[in-house]
Amino acid sequence: MACAGCGTGADGKPAGCKSNGGCSSGGCNRLNVFDWLSNIPLTDSLAPFDIIEVSFNNGSRKDFFRNSTKQLFEKGEMVAVEGVSGFDVGMVNLTGELVKLQMKKRRVEDTPEVKKLLRRASTEDMNRMSDNKKRETEALIKARAIARSIGLEMKLAEVEIQADGRKATFFYTADDRVDFRELIKIYASEFRVKVEMRQIGARQEAGKVGGIGSCGRELCCSTWLTDFKSVNTTAARYQNLSINQAKLSGQCGRLKCCLNYELDTYLDALKDFPDDCDMIETAGGNATLQKRDIFKNLMWYSYDNSNKQYPLTITRVKEIRQLNRQGVKPEELKAVEVVTSKPNKDVDLGFADVVGQISLRSLEKASQKRKQKTKEKHKEHHQKDKPKGGGNQQQPGQSGGAPQGQQQARPQKEQRPQGDRPPRQEQKPRGDQKPREQRGDQKPRGERSGEPRGEQKPREPREQRPPRNENQPRGDQKPREPREGGPRPQGGEQNPREPREGGPKPPQQGGGGGQRNQNRNRPPRKPDNKQPDNKQ
């Protein structure tokens, strides 16, 4: 468990081990012990226990020291303790009466040979320890290279240098015995320290490295587990686990320690199952035991020539075994039907399943109304832009016309024939043809167009425009071909024109939008009764 004071302190920093920002032991659960007796006061006749527990190297190593200074130390304080030919710096891990229980658990006796606690660590001690700790990574790399050059079958896991820099402990793993007498001499001359070689197992190595297990939690060996018991595949068989080496192995490469956690519970449950029923005889053949289900108290059997499994109760298995001892083979196994438990439909679960009962028509109607409003807005906006090409309203004194939006319903304008053409006849608008609306962007045509069109901008006076030669082509128009020789080269037949003096211009058939656009830029012609001369 984590320490009780991991909440935020008064200054906004985390409390707990008072490392101000993160647990200095490498994690709140890294071989940590909660002192649940720390807040219980002692009687006046009892003095506090004078031995404290100190952890080193981020909690990976712990030892006991006698407090000869008679000072009170709290958990998380850095202290200087007696070391090998010098001193070492560690963190107070446990004080008080719980230290007695820890010493009893680790079989450490309270003797005068227990090392002493010297003082609280000073700033100089902390700086010296920090400098020596920085050398550990470089020393580990050099030590591995030296061991490889000698040809020793060993793996160095960690190097721990004492705070004063006078001793170095090399932790290694090896499958066989290693003769490192020559290696120690090389290390002593290379690092200039007293060398200690300590062999550890694969599980201790995984605890020093740390990591996350398959369960998603931090490794047990790096948090609270200190005593490692042997684990074998029998524990997996008792728990009906498949013998898969990849799934049953931990990060250390050995079987997971957690296989032993529930082993006792399974062993207690298996006491009710018969032991000598691995094979039973029936009239259909011999049936072999496949597995035991301790939760449903069933035993699963299968025949040698079939892969189908038959679940039997413990009572039925004992009956068949008793018959086999009498030399009787039963006709059938009388397997039990295993039914998957389903929740009762009549039970009121406190909620109703209304999936498919809620109508979405209201939402659909709102969506349709929204779309209709959008279409109407676009239509209104389009109609507002129409008066530039032609309005829908007629003004008095102006000739009516159909709006541009209805020009598609009009018959197309007949093309004028090329060459000579017959004289025009005045045409009247058809009955089914609506009068065209006035175009607001056109200028009056003067005498040629008759009456001015609605909402048209007046053109410049004739006096301000230069006279035009009648034989000169107008604007972007091509010169006309002679009319008497044949049809005009513009295609389509058209009735002959009437004199342009006087009355209004007769309405034309079809949507002659292109011709009207050309007439906009054409200057007005002077009225005359003469026939246009043939252009050469």
Automatic annotation (TrEMBL):
Per the record, which residues fall in region Disordered? Answer: 363-536
Q: Where is the PSP1 C-terminal domain?
A: 115-200
Q: Point to the regions of Basic residues compositional bias.
A: 368-381
Q: What is this protein called?
A: PSP1 C-terminal domain-containing protein
- What's the source species for this entry? Chitinophaga barathri
Regions of biased composition (Basic and acidic residues) lie at: 411-486, 525-536
Q: Which Gene Ontology CC terms are recorded?
A: cytoplasm
Q: Which domain of life is it from?
A: Bacteria
